[in-house]
Design a protein that fits this description.
- The structure holds 2 protein chains of 2 kinds.
- Chain A contains no helices and 11 strands.
- Chain A is mostly beta strands.
- In chain A, the strands form 2 sheets. In chain A, strands 2, 4, 5, 9, 10 and 11 form a 6-stranded mixed sheet that branches. In chain A, strands 1-3-8-7-6 form a 5-stranded antiparallel sheet, with no helix packed on it.
- In chain A, strand 7 (60-65) and strand 8 form a beta hairpin.
- The N and C termini of chain A lie far apart (37 Å).
- Helices cover 0% and strands 51% of the residues of chain B.
- By secondary structure, chain B is an all-beta fold.
- The termini of chain B are far apart.
- Classes of the chains: A mainly beta, B mainly beta.
- The interface between A and B is medium-sized, with 20 and 22 residues.
Chain lengths: 112, 114
């Protein structure tokens, strides 16, 4: 089983819609969780870290469910500029916790 | 700060040729890593380093070598290029404590092996 799994999508949503992505991870000892955003043919960039209590940054809300081993990303009031691939990232307990495992990404297309 | 820089941006190699992808960072990050990204496969870790003089293998290390003689530089060497190494390569760096710090990526090198 892959360590981090995501629905690849694509998710096609109209502007203004709310969309949610989930991601599951297999290693119960994982401690660090992130969402990265990757635009077409560009490098990934950090969107937000995911804290145990959940956290919000403007239109974006991230939540962690340790019992079920999944994290989620909610985007409210979608903008055209939100179109991108969203990568779920979890640290590995191998290699003293240094390595980050990336999901394959969920593609979002926001349409006018 | 320039952040993480990679050269070249594009490269075409013939099977069997060798080359070095360059990566440098100016943020004094201890941890540096190389990933490859292929369609449908996501980002896969090739090699990583937790400091100068210390390197280790990631998920897909075969066919690649690395060294870390300075904090700033982390070159990736392809020993004998194969078509299966056609990919986009990203270098990344961050501070060592993964829980608290963002990982920064370079702009990528697009490699084609014919």
């Amino acid at each position: 089983r892959k360590e981090v799994e995501q629905d690849p999508g694509p998710f096609n949503v109209p502007e203004g819609a709310t969309v949610a992505f989930n991601c599951t991870y297999s290693n119960s000892a994982s401690q660090s969780f992130f969402w990265y955003r990757q635009d077409c043919r560009k490098e990934p960039k950090l969107l937000m870290s995911v804290y145990s209590s959940g956290n919000e940054d403007g239109r974006f809300t991230a939540q962690l469910n340790r019992a079920s081993q999944y994290i989620s990303l909610l985007i409210r009031d979608s903008k055209l500029s939100d179109s991108a691939t969203y990568l779920c990232v979890v640290n590995s307990n191998k290699d003293s916790g240094y390595a980050l495992n990336f999901g394959k990404g969920t593609s979002l297309l926001v349409t006018p | 700060n320039a952040g993480v820089t990679q050269t070249p941006k594009f490269q075409v190699l013939k099977t069997g040729q060798s080359m070095t992808l360059q990566c440098a960072q100016d943020m004094n990050h201890e941890y540096m890593s190389w990933y490859r990204q292929d369609p449908g496969m996501g980002l896969r870790l090739i090699h990583y380093s937790v400091g100068a003089g210390i390197t280790d293998q990631g998920e897909v290390p075969n066919g690649y070598n690395v060294s870390r003689s300075t904090t700033e530089d982390f070159p990736l060497r392809l020993l004998s290029a194969a078509p299966s190494q056609t990919s986009v390569y990203f270098c990344a760096s961050r501070y060592r404590q993964v829980q608290f710090y963002e990982q920064y990526f370079g702009p990528g090198t697009r490699l084609t092996v014919t």
